[in-house]
């Protein structure tokens, strides 16, 4: 297994098909550059840490500009 | 062991003195015997599991005299795992249930069977836990057990109340010793229903309520006088184990929990008491 910059690639295609955004339940997009899963519907990115996707709502960060996470956390602004 | 069938239509006869709404609210605001804000509960529980993660498995063996292994075996036997299945184990942090499911599937393997080989490769056991420490312990244990590089085990950090899986995607769903720690039981059950395929099975293994006289007194003594002390001696953490035994008492009784499962839409809801109710396995089908 190659580590470092290729860690994100461990997330296989079939996984991205079964995973959805925990808040919007819409599909997620793998962003290899930032090693994160992007929920385009609500503009939130979830990190992948040591090969484990972190998809707890509080882990999400709002994307203000293209692939640039802000400091605001997803579940502060998302309604139930 | 005894099996009790609870049909959905009998739910109203089985509900005890208090309404489900009161039960749910009190569960959401209880941290063991303490009253807390709903918002706080998740954080408090998170702290407990971050602390216990490294000793979690040893403590389980000590507290249950190794019985938890048999209970988990029983849970998995009710699942009838098959090659190619997609299974979700929630709050499964250190991997016990997931490993058993995978090993059951792999051991059922016929020699030189190409079709089964292909299906086996498609087997996916998702282990979802809200606590990264527990998941990391699980990943390490998987490596030690020789299951680390199979690709069949997928570790995901996620919230049981807001699952990150697609609707109708799972053949099976298990939650072992996890549901009493959540803030909103009904949300967990609703999410379980959502992600299961039609025909999928929900199984929950959890510490439950003992009513048999004398045995109940012994069990209470053991819970409140022995377990927190063992927690202190072995893990240097009395409070977490105090929380554990209190949270068991605050969790709804078997019949009430069964009616909650039925309320979430599951059919053929039933439960089985093990060791006189020390643990119970609840199950339901999404039809």
From TrEMBL, chain A:
InterPro entries: Trm112-like (IPR005651). It holds the Pfam family Trm112p. Residues 69-80 have a biased composition (Basic and acidic residues). Residues 59-80 are annotated as: Disordered. Belongs to the PREY family. This is Protein preY, mitochondrial. The lineage of its organism: Eukaryota, Viridiplantae, Streptophyta, Embryophyta, Tracheophyta.
From TrEMBL, chain B:
Pathway: Cofactor biosynthesis; ubiquinone biosynthesis. NCBIfam families: MenG_MenH_UbiE (TIGR01934), PRK00216.1-3 (NF001242). CDD domains: AdoMet_MTases (cd02440). GO terms for biological process: methylation. Methyltransferase required for the conversion of 2-polyprenyl-6-methoxy-1,4-benzoquinol (DDMQH2) to 2-polyprenyl-3-methyl-6-methoxy-1,4-benzoquinol (DMQH2). It comes from Ambrosia artemisiifolia. GO terms for molecular function: 2-methoxy-6-polyprenyl-1,4-benzoquinol methyltransferase activity. Component of a multi-subunit COQ enzyme complex, composed of at least COQ3, COQ4, COQ5, COQ6, COQ7 and COQ9. Interacts with PYURF; the interaction is direct, stabilizes COQ5 protein and associates PYURF with COQ enzyme complex. Belongs to the class I-like SAM-binding methyltransferase superfamily. MenG/UbiE family. Keywords: Membrane, Methyltransferase, Mitochondrion, Mitochondrion inner membrane, S-adenosyl-L-methionine, Transferase, Ubiquinone biosynthesis. Gene3D superfamilies: Vaccinia Virus protein VP39 (3.40.50.150). It catalyses: a 2-methoxy-6-(all-trans-polyprenyl)benzene-1,4-diol + S-adenosyl-L-methionine = a 5-methoxy-2-methyl-3-(all-trans-polyprenyl)benzene-1,4-diol + S-adenosyl-L-homocysteine + H(+). It is found in: Mitochondrion inner membrane. This is 2-methoxy-6-polyprenyl-1,4-benzoquinol methylase, mitochondrial. Coiled coil: none annotated. GO terms for cellular component: extrinsic component of mitochondrial inner membrane. Its EC number is 2.1.1.201. HAMAP family: MenG_UbiE_methyltr (MF_01813). It is a peripheral membrane protein.
């Amino acid at each position: 297994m190659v580590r470092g910059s290729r860690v994100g690639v461990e997330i296989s295609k079939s996984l991205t098909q079964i995973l959805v955004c925990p808040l919007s339940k819409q599909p997620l997009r793998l962003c290899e550059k930032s090693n994160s899963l992007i929920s385009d519907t609500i503009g939130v990115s979830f990190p992948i840490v040591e090969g484990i996707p972190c998809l707890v709502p509080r882990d999400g960060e709002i994307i203000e500009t293209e692939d640039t996470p802000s400091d605001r956390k997803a579940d502060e602004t998302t309604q139930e | 062991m005894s099996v009790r069938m609870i049909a959905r239509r009998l739910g109203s006869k089985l509900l005890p003195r208090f309404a489900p709404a009161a039960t749910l609210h009190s569960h959401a605001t209880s941290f063991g015997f303490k009253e807390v804000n709903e918002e706080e509960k998740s954080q408090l529980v998170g702290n407990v599991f971050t602390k216990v993660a490294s000793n979690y498995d040893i403590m389980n063996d000590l507290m249950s005299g190794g019985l938890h292994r048999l209970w988990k075996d029983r849970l998995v036997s009710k699942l009838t795992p098959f090659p190619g299945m997609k299974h979700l184990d929630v709050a499964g942090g250190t991997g016990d249930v997931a490993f058993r499911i995978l090993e059951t599937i792999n051991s059922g393997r016929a020699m030189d069977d190409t079709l089964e080989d292909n299906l086996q490769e498609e087997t996916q056991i998702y282990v979802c836990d809200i606590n990264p420490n527990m998941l990391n312990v699980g990943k390490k244990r998987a490596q030690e057990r020789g299951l680390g590089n199979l690709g069949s085990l997928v570790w995901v950090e996620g919230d049981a109340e807001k699952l990150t899986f697609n609707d109708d995607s799972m053949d099976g769903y298990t939650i072992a010793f996890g549901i009493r720690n959540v803030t909103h039981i009904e949300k967990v059950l609703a999410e379980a229903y959502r992600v299961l395929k039609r025909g999928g099975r929900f199984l929950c293994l959890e510490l439950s309520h003992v009513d048999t006289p004398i045995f109940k007194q012994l069990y209470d003594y053991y819970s409140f006088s022995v377990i927190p002390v063992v927690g202190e001696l072995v893990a240097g953490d009395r409070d977490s184990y105090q929380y554990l035994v209190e949270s068991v008492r605050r969790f709804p009784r078997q019949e009430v929990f069964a009616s909650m499962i039925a309320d979430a839409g599951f059919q053929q809801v039933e439960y089985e008491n093990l060791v006189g109710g020390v643990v119970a396995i609840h199950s339901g089908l999404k039809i």
